[in-house]
Amino acid sequence: MADATPTPSAVRRLPRPGAWGVTLSLLILVAVFDTARLTSTLEFVAKALAGTAPFILFAVLAVAYLKASGAETLLAKAFSGNQPRMIVMAALLGGLSPFCSCEVIPFIAALLAVGAPLGAVMAFWLASPLMDPAMFLITSGTLGWEFATAKAVSAIGLGMLGGFGTMLFARTPVFADPLRERPAVGGCCGAKKPFSGAPLWRFWQETERRDTFRDTALENAMFLLKWLTLAYVIEALMLDHVPAEMIAGLLGGTGVWTIVLGALVGAPAYLNGYAAVPLVDALLSQGMAPGAAMSFVIAGGVSCIPAAVAVWALVKPRVFLAYLSFALIGAVIAGMVWQTLA
């Protein structure tokens, strides 16, 4: 009798449901177990997507333009000059650039290999997954300009906290010899190799750049659509089925523990920065404290799988733990400041 136990290679070949699969599964469960709410759930998702559509469109076109023009080359300028200046510039570019963490893995690997200061790299790594033009527009459209601006400032502040902290303790065993022996330099986004040289702002003059603009726009549009659709479905289910009293009891109030808990919950519960926006909106409407919401998005953004893998692939575990520690400390500080201001 043949062994029916699946081999490891066979298990690895099993298809993953993906965001669309999870969305469809949730809607099927609603249709089966809560049929009366299926229509209202679909209407909620459609209205939410329609309301976010202008922000998505602008963000998709802006990112595609920056990619096609080769603006990624401007990142290198953050890593020249004296180290404090490098840290500040790296935090600013990381918090404002339109490129995801995994796209810059080869770039960061090259910088580390040639001896770029780890403090500047850490500043960039911490800030880059938290905010970009697309995320700012979607966050502001759902949670308000004030929250989006505060998150962008927090991203830059977190980058500088980690950068200067790394510089201060650079001679300690934690940050000595930070690179893995054979760092992985492949990206997880399937992105094309960035254009080299000075940016060409009139990108439409070259066929390859026009193709990059088209491909980037389509890829980002589908990425945002699938994750926001899933997030809005989850938001609708949360509003219908999760008692507001429970959220208010766990994450409400003005105490420091609420903010710390928001950071600790955000780290493992995060999907990605775009999907988190509707979820936080639902949590806030159910009683989540503003400070806890901020610590949730900061800690979760840095520790989400794409951002964490980008760091883990290149540096040793002790440096990775320092990265996560900076994230939690910065998230709690950002939450406390936002709690006071909000």
Structural write-up:
- This is Permease.
- Keywords: Cell membrane, Membrane, Transmembrane, Transmembrane helix.
- It comes from Roseobacter fucihabitans.
- It is a multi-pass membrane protein.
- InterPro entries: DUF318, UPF0718_permease.
- With 342 residues, this protein is mostly helical.
- It is globular, with a radius of gyration of 21 Å.
- The N and C termini lie far apart (67 Å).
- Helix 3 packs antiparallel against helix 9 and helix 7 packs parallel to helix 12.
- It has 15 helices and no strands.
- It is 70% helix and 0% strand.
- The chain has one domain.
Q: Give the SSE order as H and E letters.
A: HHHHHHHHHHHHHHH
End-to-end gap:
67 Å
* Rg from alpha-carbon coordinates: 21 Å
- Tell me the domain tally: 1
Q: What kind of sheet is the major sheet?
A: none
Residues in helices, as a percent range: 55-70%
Mean pLDDT: 80
Beta content comes to under 5%
Shape: globular
Weakly predicted, low-confidence segments: 1-12, 184-191
Q: Please count the helical segments.
A: 15
Structural class: mainly alpha
Topology, number of strands: 0
Keywords: Cell membrane, Membrane, Transmembrane, Transmembrane helix
Protein name: Permease
Pfam families: ArsP_1
Family: Belongs to the UPF0718 family.
